[in-house]
Amino acid sequence: MKNFCNPTQYVEKKYTFALAVSDSQYAMNQKNISDSLLISALRNGDIDSYKTIYAKYYAKVRGFALRLTRTEWIADEITQNVFVKIWTHRDSLVVCEQGGNLNGYIFMIAKNEVVNYYRSRQQIIAYQKDFVEDVRIEARIDESIDSKRLAAVIERIVAALPRTRREVFIMSRYRHMSNAEIALHLGISKRTVEKHISLVLEKLRMELATFLP
Fold first, then answer.
1. Which residue from 15, 13, 81, 6 is spatially nearest to 50, judged by alpha carbons?
2. What CATH number is given for 1-119 in this structure?
3. What is the pTM of this model?
């Protein structure tokens, strides 16, 4: 399991998928702490309480997002956004502290993130279609190959990429973010972004070679 990222550092540099609990046994042992105590500690910026909330709710939130979106990388992105917002908006948890429900609060954020995804989904789909046609032209793939079949192959390749590389690629090709924007968002160098994109495009060329006439 990857090292747990300091939430403050996470928010400032916007690392993607870096929220992994470093001391999972500690977090698991704390999962029985009441929500009111967790909320009180979190509002004071306590990182251990944040780790505990992460360990307690991460799998539930991701499962919820996956059921609604049916796409692994989208579920990962939604879950990441939920936990970033739990930290950045921790002061609003004062409402929950007075006998409120942390579970309800977290899933309210998750539901809103799913809604936001579906609002932007049509644009993402349009960008995906454009990219498929760009790949067809660049790789000289025969036009007789059905676009849906080609898109499915590309989606499979992208889904199997290492997490950071997949996120870089999605931001670049499906969200039309610049390399500089991606670098800032993920807290990595622009050169690293360029390297990730280059490796993905090379893999696509190799995997799609079977479609060449």
1. 6
2. 1.10.1740.10
3. 0.58
